[in-house]
Amino acid sequence: MLRCILWVLWFTTISTCAEVQFPKFEATSSFNSSFTPDHMRYLRNETKSLFDHAWTSYMKYGFPMDEVRPITCEPYGPDVKDYTNVIRNDVLGNISSTLMDNLDTLVILEKWDDLEMALGYLYREKDSYFDKDVVVQVFEMTIRSLGGLLSIHTILSDSSLMKNLRFRQICQNYDGFLLEMAYDLGKRLIPAFKTTNNIPVPRVNLKRGVKGVPSSLQLETCTSGVTTPVLEMTLLSKLTGDLQFEKYTQLAFWKIWNSRSSLDLLPMTISPAESEWKDSITGIGASIDSFYEYCVKGSILFDDTHMWEVFKTSYKALMTHSVKGSPDEFTSLIFANIGSEEGLDATIWIDSLSGFWPGVQVLSGQLKDAIGTHMVFLKLWDYFQIIPERWNFLLPKEAIKSEEDTIGLEWYPLRPEFVESTYYLYQATHDPMYLQIGETVLNLFKTKFMAPCGFKGVQDVRTGSFQNRMESFVLSETLKYLYLLFDEQNEVFLHSKRMGDTNWVFSTEGHPLWFDYNTEKTFKGSNITPKKHEFVAEGHRENSMFKSFKGLFSTTRKLKDGTTKDITIEYIDDHEFVDPFQYKFDKCEVNPFTSGSTDFMKSSYYELDNLFNLDYEYSSHLYHPHYLPQTSLDNSYIELADDFYKRFTLFNPKLTCSLQSNTEKFDIFIGDKTSIRNNSLTLIPSSNTLWIHEFDNVRLSMELIQKGKIDSRHNYITQQQVETTNSRLVEGVLDPNITLYDASVRITRINGVFVKPEHELVVSRFTQDQLKRPGANKRKDRLTIYNSQVLLDGVVIENLRITD
Ligand SMILES: *[C@@H]1O[C@H](CO)[C@@H](O)[C@H](O)[C@H]1NC(C)=O
Ligand SMILES: *[C@@H]1O[C@H](CO)[C@@H](O)[C@H](O)[C@H]1NC(C)=O
Ligand SMILES: *[C@@H]1O[C@H](CO)[C@@H](O)[C@H](O)[C@H]1NC(C)=O
Ligand SMILES: *[C@@H]1O[C@H](CO)[C@@H](O)[C@H](O)[C@H]1NC(C)=O
Ligand SMILES: *[C@@H]1O[C@H](CO)[C@@H](O)[C@H](O)[C@H]1NC(C)=O
């Protein structure tokens, strides 16, 4: 669940509701992290009980309003007195949002009575259901209600999905009215997209259209808001045969993509009227998150190779400019917010919403990256027992007066993203650590978040206070993904073999969506049969950069110093030269975690020697709020929970910690930043060579290798090691402040590609005079060549060779 605006202060009313009964839960489970089939059944059952509690409370005290307030058991809907209260009104359209958002959840949790009741209500109300004089946000309405309706329509149109008799009966009685409702809603939302410049306005009045919205509410929209509706709307067009939804949302999507910066990055704030960006910050979190998500999911759902290319281009840009991490395997990766024009850090925080990213990384086949990104959110949960809306991980240590300064925004409205990514990672790896995470979250729902009429999120992580609000995504996503995490054995149709052959995705709101080109069931009353989407197969991509420079490698070349291996590129066939990003996306990472082992009784987490690096690296930015236990040995660290640790180390604990790197690290740009995207790298896997034709238009991450320090590969740097590197030079100290045998420089990342220890970078042409380093620096930053070695300020770049 994603959102444009999040700097909201929630208001809390604390007063409890006496007559309400809390559900009964066992105080502690007798299973204790065993994850046997019985234990998994127990976990599913417990999750279902949690859902029942919230759903029953909503139906009793909230319905037909949009939500129920969990602490005070009151109904909650739009703010009718203050139309500028968009935080509340954007998602609350007086349309029973919690019900709209959870129709498919009722199927997944097999709540047939509740489903029949909800369907009966909608059937009675369908004709005037959306005919409400309310201003809503098009994005929120699309992902929650339109997506919800499309999902339940798709499910009910296919009675072969489940064996359950009740379900089959419900399907038989279903006449397609939910698609009619979706069509009605779509027609009320699409006018927002029919602007002269194809950039949609953010809001509509459901009854009175765009004209019914005060212009002060239409000034700004965000990248997610403009580009995300394309998925639900395209599906609506395919199901109804009315092409306007696909047409207008696709126009908006491609218009935005075409206005990306020269670094292939999209800013996040747009003025629809002026048709221009209002800001240049970008990242992966709030305001842009679902753009990336739907590039991947759109490419899966509609076999759309164009969207897949957009995702890969974006991923490469983020790996070049945004990511913080090391070339380590399973290193923790933080995707920082950066300026889209210059690619430098633009904020000090990451947000809770970016917790969706590991799920998208899994879907796109980037499993190692996903594990590393997810670890950051795991650590946040370890310390705060929630994920704060914003965490100031880049706040300089000197600026931290109180540990609370590291909290950028202090609330947690029970957002689903962490559980969602955990679900994807468990499906991909089957590492029991992900179940342990799920059980920990489940236990907190049973205790800490439990409220008389649902679940209460955290208002302020610094004080431990709660908020009297339960958004519809708590049920439709957080509890749904939790349930599905424990449901690996096909008990729900989603994990069945049949669905394994279907191109289905969860929408950004957790609604399962798929589109069967052969389906007979179309919109009743529409005589247009959906056509099969044209599949544009792109075929094998040629590495054109390599092709044009191939002649350079027509003879065997030996490096001048003679100490390194020969590079005999002429013997290598064309197909052995690959674009490292193409390579990254083409090969399928099948559970990289266990390196072949499928032992159930073992978590691969305990093999990671960098499991606690983040704790050290951000020791000034991670702390336990005063009301939580202060020690790591009380089971509050998920990865150190006693029972789990004993079981899943196979009684052979191997937990080791690597040395914490303390080398100086910096980035440099050479040449023109805006041409970085055109300077392709070539990987020659057989010789572990990364070849770059011209050492120009590159972004490099580097570290200074000095004796006595610990490098980013966690090795202690010895005098001998530095001397060996430097012995290739006879003399030539250019910077008087650095003596030759003291240091070398190592490239750790070049244009988004991590340079692994086994890699050697080879460059064939060289530019000397365009080097820039962001930020203040005392160095001269000069590149020179000496004996085939490239030197930065007189210090050897140890993993870079130049061919002459
Ligand atoms: C599970 O843990 C609880 C609390 O640590 C303990 O009281 C109980 O005996 C354990 N149960 C089993 C089956 O080990
Ligand atoms: C599921 O939980 C309910 C109470 O919440 C309990 O009555 C029932 O026996 C449980 N079923 C299983 C299979 O554990
Ligand atoms: C909400 O919808 C109900 C039912 O259609 C209607 O009676 C009520 O007036 C609406 N409330 C607001 C605030 O629009
Ligand atoms: C760089 O690549 C983009 C496409 O990625 C292309 O549109 C542009 O013309 C290229 N620029 C140059 C200078 O080659
Ligand atoms: C060398 O270091 C000294 C003292 O730190 C400084 O004043 C001087 O500018 C440095 N020289 C160069 C060439 O960087």
UniProtKB/TrEMBL annotation:
Subcellular localization: Endoplasmic reticulum
GO cellular component term of the entry, any: endoplasmic reticulum quality control compartment
EC number: 3.2.1.-
Active site: residue positions: 140 (proton donor), 289, 389 (proton donor), 417
GO annotation, biological process: carbohydrate metabolic process; endoplasmic reticulum mannose trimming; ERAD pathway
InterPro entries referenced in this protein's UniProt entry, alphabetically: 6hp_glycosidase-like_sf, EDEM1/2/3, Glyco_hydro_47, Seven-hairpin_glycosidases
Signal peptide: 1-17
Assigned protein family: Belongs to the glycosyl hydrolase 47 family.
Protein name: alpha-1,2-Mannosidase
